[in-house]
Amino acid sequence: MITNDEVPPTQNTITILQCNLNKNRVTTDSILNDPSSMKFTALLLQEQYYSKYMKSSLTHPSWTLIEPTTITNNQPRTAIYINNRILITSAFEPVHLSFSDVTAVKIKTKEQAKPTLLINVYNPSNANLITPLRRSLLDNIQEDQYDAIIICGDFNLHHPLWNPTSYKVHDKQADELIDLMADHGLKLLLPPGTITFPRAETAIDLVWGNERTEHAIIKCQISKHNDHGSDHLPIEIALDLHPLHIPSTQTPYNYAKTDWKTLETKLPEYLPSIIEITNTGTTTPTIVDQYARGITEAIRRAIDETTPRKKPCPFSKRWWNEDLSQLRREANQLRNIYRRRRNERVRVAWQEKKNEYRQKVKEAKEKTWKDFVSKADQRTIWTIKKYVDTTPTPSYIPTLNERAASNEEKAAEFQAAFFPPPPPADVTDINDSTKYPEPIQCSTTITMQQITNAINKLAPDKAPGPDEITNRVLKKIFPTIQHHLHALAQASFDAGHFPTPFKTTTTVILRKPGKPDYTNPKAYRPIALENTLGKVLESVIAELLSYITETHELLPPQHYGKAWKNLRGRNDDIIGKDT
User: Do 204 and 288 lie in a common domain?
Assistant: First the structure.
């Protein structure tokens, strides 16, 4: 049984699994979900399964998918999957190469100032990729910019340098491949004569590396224990290079397991004293900030003592189970026996076990989905609808505008696209003779009913801001903190100051669905996650402004849109107020 406590072993190496998957869905699912894959830093796959529905290779929450940066009408035949539990996104970066069958990425390491370069190649047997690839690498890859360099993949070429001595085919294009590698000081790392394509007893899957890679190599060999049923054998590569690991971070709170009674008991002990509100103008921004910070820290402390953190999601998807792992091992054992003995009965048994494994994978997916649908309630039925209506998309953001590849560069591109400087205000209609209307008199007293209304309007399960206090928490503890919130809102209003602790937000970048080009920053939208206490204060002020605007008819008669409906209760945006 796959548990929620799965974590990859502590790694001081960069480990790579390379394999051609023959475009098979089950084989691709298997290599992405089997727990044996979790030790690898990266998967370099050729002819991976490509989903026409998703218009991409398969995605997986435990892996970041990187496909070729050059997009054509043809399906890409290479992909690199980065293990999310080993590398943080700032530790790797795609490298642009002008081929739809070549994927490249550079990985930062701890000791070296220069990154490690991985290039994954699929050379089709009916075309010549090697000649243009050689020219492109000479123009775009400078060896002195990298530490270790590895070029591997399915080259579909034969040469005595790597084929078994009994195989005499010598492709002319293979000579050019050797010249390509010599241009960059790369040598063959996989031992000569290693069979990678058992059907023809040849070696067409190769691994090349520079001198630094040779010195750092721990292993480069066929990986029998990570065979997932492809007609190509997988190759395992381990380098004595220390990748930049994901820093230890806390997982979100699991509010489904909060001890609410204990929380409500502890919270009053931690809350600051309610500040005294006066109309003498003595409430300063500093006092407001300190009071807001005290309330926030009290709630956070009570939550931390009564709410466990969520455990990491399992490496495999929910349909994967240990029985599937065992079936895969049994099929591989039978295949290995057949290769040694060439016995027909063993071959039949192997084929039967392989077909059983593939059928069990299909049945496991169907059963998990049916069980999920059958247990749907009023809340989860909408999750099911979302799964059915939406196409899964990769969460990784590719290189933007053909220049922004690092996280810092991408952030700068998004900032420029989402938050451009405002245009200068046109004040030509304002002069010395401009007359302003008399200020409107309004009550400056915040009532408890206004605070209650703001709390009641909160959606309980919205994502929280940086303080991790959810709307559900505020609703649960409102009887305990209502007077503190009331005093905070009044102090903020009197001081004319929005508390500084609430001005910090977390901005999440989401893909807009159905966009043709996700290298354009405008194909994304920002979602700002605010601290929920600040949103309560905003709601109170917004309600007050709405009341004043409606009461004194401050909106022009021609004003249309959502604000018109909210303030006047109109049901359409077409017919305005008679003038």
Answer: no
